[in-house]
Amino acid sequence: MTATGAPRVLLVEDDPQLLTMLRILLTEEGYDVDTAADGQRGLHLGLTRDYDVVVLDRGLPAIEGLDLLARLRGKGVVTPTLVLSAQGNPADRVAGLDAGAEDYVGKPFDVDELLARLRALRRRHLDVARSLPLPGGRLELDTRNVLPDNGNPVRLSERECALLATLAARPGHVFSRSQLLGLVFGEAESEVVVDTYVHYLRRKLGRRIVDTVRGRGYQLGNSR
Ligand code: CA
Predict the structure, then answer these.
(1) Distance between CA atoms of 171 and 219, rounded to whole angstroms?
(2) Global pTM value
């Protein structure tokens, strides 16, 4: 929230008319609105400023919407996000929710419904802020603690936490090593660093926290 108590929204949309329309609408609704017209700018704002909610177009120049969202989640940004998409079929909706979106609205959308969904999103988020579910527990992003359903908290390093948060933001999704390298560690390092940190996570949290998918990469463990 801002000093005046207005909720802050980040709006990422490359269609100039739609961007203007949504900015006016959200401002009238009482939001303090920041806008970005491409994925790169959206990512920069999302990483450097605090928002109460993000409205994200899926088809964007520079960085595609779902990729932007995965990168934010990988850096521990858990701001609730509503994805807008012209591709409104059920498979797209699943892809959006898989990428860590809390809600997904197909274009064209009804304005009142969009505003109602944003209000619901912010209400829900207050209850589950900054924590991600894991098999057998959850990850608290503020403290970098894994809280098992039974047992004592386990503290992670910054990079261990970033890797686990990236995997946990998209359970069921298989990440290649090069993808994880880009999302978590930066392209300058070797892919071996990914294997090393998977090893660290398994040593701290048990083998089954991360599954190896032969020939493809890693995913969050799905065993209980
Ligand atoms: Ca677009």
Answers:
(1) 7
(2) 0.60
